[in-house]
Amino acid sequence: MLFHRDDIPVGARADCTRCGAELYRHISNSLDRSLALYLSTLMFMVVANFYPFITMQTAGIKATSLVSSGGLALYQFGMGELGLVVFLTSILFPLICIVGMIYLLIAVRFGTLPPLYAPIYRIIKACEPWSLLAVFMLGTLIAAVKLRALAQVIPGLGMFGFVMMLITYSAARASFDPEVLWVKCKVKQLDSDEFPGGSKEARVLTCHTCGLLRPLDSNLHQCERCGAGIHFRVVDSLEKTWALLISACIMLIPANLYPVMSVKKLGRGNADTIVSGVMHLMEAGLFGLAFIVLFASIVVPVMKLTTLGYLLYSVRNKSDWRPRDRTLLYRITEVVGAWSMVDVFLVGLLSGLVSLGLLASIEPGIGVTFFGAAVILTMLAAHSFDPRLIWDNTSLDPDGLPSNKLPKNENNIQALAQTQVPPSQTPAPSAEGRLEAQ
């Protein structure tokens, strides 16, 4: 759906009147704020990765781990592919995003776009969904609780750096307005009279990376601004999503049948599956921890598979039932899916930290490899599904009326009608004629 990009006050947010998604914000001093936060994040990242993360001490024996110890331990246990996933999602991808944004923002701060800004921005946008710092932190907290039964757990300076890195990284992403980059770009947005048709009939190409809009008849296959491939709808979206979804279902079967972790104390112990691990936590009285593991490891994967399967079925049958609610279901599925990786991080952290000889040891099981594959496949399935297909089958306007009853303004483009405005704010500078698409 097309909208005029209206003036909104500082701190306000403009939402789509049809599906409720955020279109844009007016962030005060976005450039300086986000640059300062990304620089702080980089400094905290150095502390987090080069100083002790967790220390475990018992019976005169001390074991210390770094952030990278989990991935290294999985590699040493013969699970190199899973160790690589842990390394990428907890260290490399966040590092690429942080360094890439600093490179772009410093150049813009001096009034220009840097060399190779387009491919760097595309790489950053591709890595952001896979930068799972918050999930890694949750895995760390669960690991610390589980380890209390074995030894004294002492957080190190690296953990403090990691917590601060997570806070500043989240704040930096929330403070960044992409417009600070694209105002320096020579490629301009088109005016509303250059787009044919009204809000329902408009046929536009939208770049998923930078948001540039072009009419469908422009015959573009590559974004003029960031160089990303553009398309009216994701090519073979339903087929790719079905294939990934079925593969994830297959992976979940051995993930729940085979053990994910073996805990040994004084040379004795049992291998735990996901379900038995939850039961043992309940028997130990750790009901809160058991609920978190149950939700992240069982409820979330099943919910994602069920929801995506329903969305695919509804689109395949051209259903026009409650498109806004189905779009909201998709957004929730996309957001919560990454949290299932907490089990993978947990096993990696425990395996890297607990190796106390005859006293205690924790080893990863083959089930965690299948589980990690299932989580990654469901995340890929969510990214390959095109939610615009939901709206292609509906004939309702934003107010639930037939689309042919929709009033048109002078340029046949629906005016922006919903903003969330904080009190006592002044409007932003004018942006007349610019468009946003959802």
Can you give me a brief rundown of this structure?
By secondary structure, this protein is mainly alpha-helical. Helix content is 50%, strand content 11%. The N and C termini lie close together (5 Å).
Report on the structure:
The model is unreliable at 398-419 and 423-433 (pLDDT under 50). The chain has one domain. The N and C termini lie close together (5 Å). It is built from 14 helices and 13 strands. Strands 3-2-12 form a 3-stranded antiparallel β-sheet, with no helix packed on it. A 3-stranded antiparallel β-sheet has the order 5-4-6. With 438 residues, the protein is mainly α. Helix 1 packs antiparallel against helix 3 and helix 2 (69-76) runs antiparallel to helix 3.
Layout: helices, strands, pairs:
Elements: E1 2-4, E2 13-15, E3 22-25, H1 30-50, E4 54-58, E5 61-65, H2 69-76, H3 80-109, H4 117-127, H5 133-147, E6 152-155, H6 157-175, H7 179-182, E7 204-206, E8 213-215, H8 237-257, E9 261-265, E10 268-272, H9 274-283, H10 287-316, H11 323-336, H12 342-353, E11 360-364, H13 366-384, H14 388-392, E12 419-420, E13 435-437
Antiparallel strand pairs: 1-13, 2-3, 2-12, 4-5, 4-6, 7-8, 9-10, 9-11
Helix pairs in contact: 1-3, 1-6, 2-3, 2-12, 3-4, 5-12, 8-10, 8-13, 9-10, 10-11, 10-13
